[in-house]
Known about the structure:
By secondary structure, this protein is of the alpha/beta class. The protein has 12 helices and 10 strands. The strands form 2 sheets. Strands 1-2-3-6-7-8-9-10 form an 8-stranded parallel β-barrel, surrounded by 6 helices. α9 runs parallel beside α11 and α9 crosses α12. The longest helix has 25 residues. Ribose-5-phosphate binds next to α10. The site of ribose-5-phosphate has 13 residues, from α10.
Amino acid sequence: MPEADKxxxxxxxxxxVTTEGFFLKxxxxxxxxMKNRLSKIFNPATGRTVMLAIDHGYFQGPTTGLERIDVxxxxxxxxxxxxxxxxxILRTTIPPTYTGGIVIRASGGPSILKxxxxxxxxxxxxxxxxxxxxxxxxxxxxxxxxxxxSVHNMTRLVDMGxxxxxPILAVTAVGKDMVRDARYFRLACRICAELGAQYVKTYYxxxxxxxxxxxxxxxxxxxxxxxIPELDALTMSYRAIQExxxxxxxxxxxxxxxxxIAMIQAVxxxxxxxxxxxxxxxxxxxxxxxxxKSAKKRSAKK
Length: 302
Ligand code: R5P
């Protein structure tokens, strides 16, 4: 039996009890567990995230740059706030010592050979909890052949997520023949948020991205898309952040760069330190050069 506590005096009666708002847009009414998971994805100091997307294999197999994730991606992990990936790659290849957020791809089914919009839920909530996921990602095909089915996948995950405190990331997928403009993305992002997604991944558009971000009541992260020159990818990221995105979820523009470690650090500069595109590109060039020098030294020692 512990001895009785002496009566304390530290009630700080002159200080009102702190009631802090949560740092992410539209997230103040979420429960503690969900906020804590979101804080593993978004850095509370900046309110932003660099998610490294490596989930491409779930529909297109060993994508260029992802053939050997143990060799090419594991060295990038220290620079990623979050990894977005499948549970297969997580279990087989990612060291469990990684302490950043894990966002698990939770929809799938069709391969690149079929209609990609025909997805189903592909992960059980129990397994996501076992894997200590910080969020689950689901593709939503607004305007696609299986639009309703994909929205239903999302709403089912949102309901399961609400039971267990698991945030759901809705990924707005654009079919080949669809117009990628602000009007379309305003529609797609707003539908995802209205139906309960805790955050949304969407593409950048040159005209009107700020209206996409403003009309979406939850945080938006910018999707990377196909590989473009590094300066262009940094410029796109800069604009998206300045126009209201809370981070990026980028894959090919990082791991298909000829210097992925330099590129992910340059992207971090844009996202977390508000580096201008030119400054970030200079950082990329410096880090690439330093990387090349140390690679030469290493091979000379062999
Ligand atoms: C599919 O649409 C997925 O979201 C991708 O597999 C991935 O996350 C895309 O990343 P990125 O376009 O930046 O390579």
